[in-house]
Design a protein that fits this description.
Elements (H helix, E strand, L loop, with lengths): L2 H9 L22 H15 L4 E3 L13 E2 L11 E3 L22 H11 L10 E6 L1 H9 L3 H7 L1 H24 L4 E6 L9 H7 L1 H10 L6 E6 L6 H5 L5 E4 L8 H7 L3 E6 L1 H6 L3 H15 L4 E5 L9 H10 L14
Parallel strand pairs: 1-4, 4-5, 5-6, 6-7, 7-8, 8-9
Antiparallel strand pairs: 2-3
Helix pairs in contact: 2-3, 4-6, 5-6, 6-8, 12-13
Length: about 350
């Protein structure tokens, strides 16, 4: 099977020649440069041969044009937090207006990365998906810890900003799909009871998520919902219009088999990116891959981490997963630690 056919079969819970897998990570040394990010992503793909390719830009790409300033200190997962947030008072929400992603800083860089990757032979038959944050997740990036309070004290201001953000996100998705990507990796970092109540997500999160995801219906064949965080509102997330769901099944839950039973499409996960892929042994990594296959019967499964790979993940651990699943490894100079 081609990688595309293998992924499609997994989305439909049909038999596959081998269980598909995928890895993704930040490249903080180069991710502020579209050419550098494209080449780093392709080099990573050349080594491991993932069944889909996720483009992982700088974490602050979506909020740069609105005034957030990203720092230079790289966190263990590879992202850099914002030093200055755009929204520092209630009135700042009024500054959030729709953007043109073809010219706006951050958004345009990711589009250029897509264009630069588009004709490279190393993509082969693998579907490509850019990272897209949900509107409420972007609002949190814009305002940091003040967002919950503003939702309660100034809901109208936040709602107007969410409308502008949603319009920008949809414009980006439409342009990315026109450039030939297969879908999106849609990161929802706000459907967690550690951040918001279920009522708050139902009012300020889910309606906008549905608008974005429904806007791609019929044009995206690989819409991945990434549920980020702990205490997830999984029942709500499982009802979103998507093809696959990714979450930290080993660290945050629910367990992989339980999530598989709740969603209509494929699940992506089964590997602990911190305790096993970064800090464990190749034997432990391979064992987790086999456990994920056993938990789902190998149907409707793409083996992968629960979130982005940490900085310093050893090559032998990732290679062990590929070998356990029957994938193809290629020698790439310098591929010892990512």
């Amino acid at each position: 099977m081609s990688r595309r056919d293998r992924v499609l079969a997994a989305l439909r819970r049909q038999p596959v020649d081998r269980v598909p897998y995928a890895f993704w990570r930040h490249f903080p040394q180069v991710d502020r440069n579209p050419a550098g990010l494209a080449q780093a992503t392709l080099r990573f793909q050349e080594r491991y041969g993932s069944d889909f390719i996720k483009i992982t830009p700088a974490g602050g790409y979506a909020v740069e044009e609105w005034g957030c300033v990203e720092g230079d200190v790289v966190q263990p997962d590879g992202h850099r937090p914002c030093l200055v947030c755009a929204v520092q008072s209630p009135g700042d929400w009024k500054k959030i207006r729709p953007l043109d992603p073809t010219t706006a800083a951050g958004w345009a860089h990711q589009l250029e990365t897509i264009v630069r990757m588009g004709f490279d032979r190393r993509i082969g038959d693998a579907p490509v998906v850019p990272t897209l944050f949900s509107p409420l997740s972007i609002a949190r990036k814009l305002s940091a810890d003040r967002l919950p309070g503003d939702l309660r004290a100034h809901p109208g201001l936040v709602r107007d900003a969410l409308e502008a953000i949603t319009e920008t996100v949809i414009r980006f998705a439409e342009r990315a799909l026109a450039e030939g990507v297969s879908g999106v990796f849609y990161s929802i970092q706000a459907a967690s009871l550690s951040l918001f109540t279920e009522e708050e997500y139902a009012e300020f999160g889910e309606p906008y998520d549905r608008r974005v995801l429904e806007a791609m219906a019929g044009r995206s064949f690989l819409t991945i919902v990434h549920a980020h965080g702990d205490r997830l509102m999984f029942e709500r997330l499982a009802r979103l219009p998507a093809h696959a769901w990714n979450w930290d099944a080993r660290g945050a839950g629910p367990p992989l088999a339980e999530g598989w039973a709740r969603v209509p499409g494929a699940v992506i996960g089964g590997l602990d990116q911190w305790r096993t892929l970064r800090d464990g042994t190749p034997e432990q990594a391979a064992a987790e891959a086999r456990e994920a296959v056993a938990a789902t019967g190998g149907l409707g499964l793409i083996v992968g981490p629960g979130c982005v790979l940490p900085v310093g993940t050893p090559d032998p651990n990732l290679a062990a997963v590929v070998k356990a699943l029957g994938g193809e490894l290629r020698r790439v100079p310098g591929a010892t630690v990512w």
